[in-house]
Amino acid sequence: MRDVETTQSVRDAFDLTGRVALVTGGGSGIGRTTAEVLAAAGATVVCADINEDGAAETARAITEQGGTAESVALDVAVPGAAAGVVEGIVATHGGLHIMCNIAGIMIDSSIIDLDPDEFDRILSVNLKGVLYGCQAAGRVMVEQRRGSIINMASAAVLAPSPGIGPYAICKAGVAQLTKSMAVEVGRRGVRVNTIAPGFIPTNMTARYYTNPDGSIDEDTKAAMLTPMAKYAPLRRVGETNDIGYCVLYLASDASSFVTGQLLSPNGGVSMHY
Question: Annotated catalytic, 167?
């Protein structure tokens, strides 16, 4: 007969105390909030970003709130770079338990007009960068016989939109990469899942309502976000913490029977089986 769930057992299921997490793209947006959430749940978080100052600021904010975090510069598109960071983490902390592949870029282009060099650039970051992160973390986690890898896709995989096809192609690749790897490493106690967020106001999406001088055009922002909120069944756009808490679930023991899945926090804009 199973034990009765209690307040403590539920808290324990989400407790990350003693675990080490690496978050790419940790200098801003979803990556930064994810790092904050994982640290608040007890993890030691390594915030990695090509923007070293941004990563350092995230780590500093976490430590000021009593969490444990550090930062490292990482260009996920460089072969071997993620492996080097993971090796350093293992040498310092003795292991790696959570890998969050969140770093990403966007280009605006139709499929017909897509420039080959630009396509190579977005593939290098958004697909190859995730692959390199999965490989580096996976090797460690397979040896540990324990670990959770969380990859960031996009609702563009579920509901295609004009002008962002190159981005959607990369994210579809991430979703398939997740499934394939989950099958390969599951028997060694390693879980691999994908999150496909809906529209979240971040530095990446702010390009639609940012003035040439870098300031936010509040009228354009409202004109864009208001109809988005009305279209969503939940009548709002998402926030970065909506995604961060999904990451927490997949990183924690609460999701110990979940692998190879795509979780879609998008307010109901796109629904799938």
Answer: yes
Q: What is the 3-state secondary structure (H, E, C) of 211-259?
A: CCCCCECHHHHHHHHHHHHHHCCCCCCCCHHHHHHHHHHHHCHHHCCCC
Amino acid letter, 60: R
Question: Is residue 227 predicted with pLDDT exceeding 90?
Answer: no
Report, in angstroms and rounded to the nearest whole number, the Rg of the chain calculated over CA atoms: 18
Q: Flag whether the pTM goes above 0.90.
A: yes
Distance CA 238, CA 132 (A): 28
Cα 92 to Cα 72: distance, rounded to the nearest angstrom: 13
Residue 1 pLDDT grade (very low, low, confident, very high; cuts 50, 70, 90): low
- Mean of the per-residue pLDDT values for the chain? 94
Half-sphere exposure of 272 (CA within 13 A, CB side): 13
Q: Which two tokens stand for residue 238?
A: 């998402």
Cβ atoms 56, 71 nearer than 8 A = yes
Tell me the pLDDT tens digit for each residue of 228-271: 888 889 999 889 999 999 999 999 999 999 999 999 999 998 88
Judge contact between 29 and 9, C-beta under 8 A.
Answer: no
Q: Which of 132, 167, 209, 245 is catalytic?
A: 167
Burial profile 131-163: b = 16 or more Cβ within 10 angstroms, e = fewer: bbbbebbbbbbbebebbbbbbbbbbbbbbeeee
What confidence category does residue 161 fall into, taking pLDDT thresholds of 50, 70 and 90?
confident
